[in-house]
Write a structure and sequence with these properties.
The model is unreliable at about 1-5 and about 55-85 (pLDDT under 50). The termini are far apart. The protein has about 500 residues and is of the alpha/beta class. The longest helix has about 55 residues, at about 130-180. The chain has helices at about 5-35, 35-50, 60-80, 85-90, 95-125, 130-180, 185, 190-210, 210-220, 260-275, 290-295, 315-320, 325-330, 345-350, 370-375, 380-390, 405-420, 490-500; strands spanning about 225-230, 235-240, 245-250, 255-260, 280-285, 305-310, 340, 360-365, 390-400, 420-430, 435-440. The protein has a seven-stranded mixed beta sheet with strand order 7-6-5-8-9-11-10, sandwiched between helices. It has a four-stranded antiparallel beta sheet with strand order 1-2-3-4. It has three domains: about 1-220, Growth Hormone, Chain: A; about 225-255, Spermidine Synthase, Chain: A, domain 2 (Roll); about 260-500, Rossmann fold. It contains 18 helices and eleven strands.
Amino acid sequence: MNRAISPLFVVVLIIATCGLIYELIVGTLASYLLGDSVTQFSTVIGVYLGAGHRRVGEPLLRAQPRGALHRGRAGGGAGGRHLGSVLFFTFSEGASFRVTLYATVLLTGTLVGLEIPLLMRILKDSLQFKDLVSRILSFDYLGALFASLLFPIVLVPKLGLVRTSLLFGLLNALVGLWSTFLLESQLGTTLRLRVKGVIACVLLTGGFVLGDRMTLLFEEQLYHDEVVHAQSSPYQRIVVTRSQRGFSLFLNGNLQFSSVDEYRYHEALVHPVMQAARERRRVLILGGGDGLAAREVLRYPEVESVTLVDLDPAITSLATKYSELQELNHASLEDPRLHLLNDDALRFLAERPPTETWDVAIVDFPDPNNFSLGKLYTTRFYALLKGALGESGVTVVQSTSPLFARQSFWCIDRTLRAAGFQTRPYHAWVPSFGEWGYVLASASALETRHALPDGLSFLSDSTLPMLFQFPKDMDEVPAEVNRLNNQVLVHYYEEEWRRWN
């Protein structure tokens, strides 16, 4: 039995790693499908940990490899073969998604939770109790550390959710199969367990090989239109769909634009701030890696340079290599006046040379639906942005919907004012999004200084002033200032959009 002690501690390490990976996958899936990332991750991990406290009611030695095999099948299914497909199906069909979700969490949590007490009881005659507990918990926590580092840095960017779940399902099945050899002298007849283990490994290996096709199949259930491009970057899931009307870009399941009406969004984003700017020689675009905001900026012949900062090189690469998007953005990212940087916008502003400033800054980030994005809507970020503008510099911030997320919209406006800006909020109707909001801001007084360029499809000199008028159901409401230490905007946003979803 002493010879089996070291391998069994390795088993503990693998079990802990796989268990947390499963729940990170399910939590990510829940956030991806339902939004509300804070609530989904909190409840998923909480239910998982609670499910782990179970009494063992079957023969000890035989339970260990059997549990690993079950966990391999269930965990592999959590994002892939069985339960994952059920999660996607129940969500797309409007069935009871949360019931299926938490049943998945309870199942994997229970199977993982059984394992540690089982191994402790198997090893109790080989080590003193204090040494046994110390080693078991050390390997358990080490496995959780491995999982928390591997999942966001390596697994999701390189493999995606489905293939990650299948890989760790396979790893669990292999552990179960290995355990039949480690404990052979105590188990007796193991042929049946080994056959099950081999079958599980073969099925999970096949699923892993076909993982990309399975991911595409599941995603097609989530989108009304045909999926024509899908990829995972270290930062997000990128999906392009096509219909008879045109194509659409989704990031983490959230629509970014539709080619049918994106001109309304981007004309409203860019031209009011270009009208208000005293100088328009140097322009900074934060976000906007699709090149559509840059297309509008480059309409102005007096623009000498455009600096575009977008975190994800996968998006900027798509904007130059996907022919339909390149045609839509007029190859703006290849314009000689544009300088492209793939960097975090907050870090870029914090590290810029003090002498480098811009006349106009266009902030086109995704909505603040998590803390990582929420930091880009804080007083800290806006103070850095203010420093990057010249004395008469002007900026505009995409600010979600003043109709669907009213308090969120006015929170952004108030946060800009708290950072020292004078603001002029406005809105525009974009059919794909509904009523959408923006905030024009400057350290000095805001006024219209220039006429609109020719060739616009949406805005005109007569209709532009109407964008700054708000009806009663979108008028200002009280909201707190969004700061790094409270991220109140993320909470506003999740609560408001949950009501509409």
